[in-house]
Amino acid sequence: MVVQEFTVDLNKPLVFQVGHLEERYQEWVHQPIVSKEGPRFFGNDILEFLTRTKWWAVPTIWLPVVCCLFVKSIIMGHTIQEVALMALFGIFIWTLIEYTLHRFLFHIDTKMYWSNTAHYLLHGCHHKHPMDSLRLVFPPAATAILCVPFWNLVAFFATPSTTPALFGGGLLGYVMYDCTHYYVHHGQPSKDPAKRLKRYHLNHHFRIQDKGFGITSSLWDVVFGTLPPSTPGKKN
Length: 236
Hints:
Blueprint: H1 15-18, H2 25-29, H3 45-50, H4 57-75, H5 80-105, H6 113-128, H7 140-157, H8 163-186, H9 194-206, H10 219-224
């Protein structure tokens, strides 16, 4: 008996379909569909709503939180200059977190039903539909949940008065990352460095998908040897 291979129906909610691709999922998800209209994820309207986020929601929600965190460290005795230095350090650490998550979590190799499903929700959907403007930035509810372990991690290494400024710097780095990510997909920069950054990231989507993991900077790609070659080559 010949068993017919599972085929994804793009006209139906995708999330609970993609897991059935099993070993073929990675090949399927890295064949992008270039369309501004994103697919439907869930049949349930509430769950579907939670997967869609306007880009401006990120700075609108999180920049006031960043400011409050900086003010908290100032109230606890730090100067503005000290808080600024801690914020810069937090941003720097975020760039490493950004690279690490993108390379080792977002591009993890999955083959089983639930791991494929989780990967698609986390990052696979972005590679399959890279121009879906409502699924480019991280949903605020998910960000809020992830803030808890990251806050505890910073608090473990820092003092009570430096934790808010350091965490605020990291959170500011995240806001810069998400806004930059949206811009390199949907903006039309005419000058460097924005034009170069857009070209660098779209190269990751459409030419060499296992290189170029930095979004806001190529720094860590240089450090860890994942900088894509400058000449066109075979698509990976």
